[in-house]
Design brief:
single chain, 98 residues, four-stranded parallel β-sheet, two-stranded parallel ribbon, 17% strand
Length: 98
């Protein structure tokens, strides 16, 4: 299932909603693709929410992928080593190697 983040900024106050949406998808029994095409910024709490969700999805045997991350978010993903935990699209992998 694709979940599109529809905000430019994921701030602390958005994290609970993000967690609830990711949990709802987990309960459907489907893999998730998190589309970050509109997101320009994710606060540390948002990154923690994503990391926690990745671990829960993986523990239950589901895949968690991120697509369409902009270059700033790609840098954050690389710096926090989230790229080691994620399935990343080929296009996003190319962006990460730049």
């Amino acid at each position: 299932m694709i979940y599109r983040v529809n905000k430019e900024r994921i701030n602390e106050e958005d994290c609970q909603q993000l967690y609830q949406e990711l949990t709802r998808i987990l309960n459907t029994g489907e893999d998730i693709i998190l589309d970050l095409s509109k997101a320009k910024y994710i606060c540390p709490s948002g990154l923690r929410t994503i990391v926690m969700s990745i671990k829960v999805f993986r523990a239950k045997g589901f895949d968690f992928s991120i697509v369409n991350a902009n270059s700033d978010l790609v840098e954050i993903i690389k710096a926090t080593r989230l790229d080691d935990m994620l399935l990343i699209s080929e296009e996003d992998k190319k962006n990460m190697s730049r």
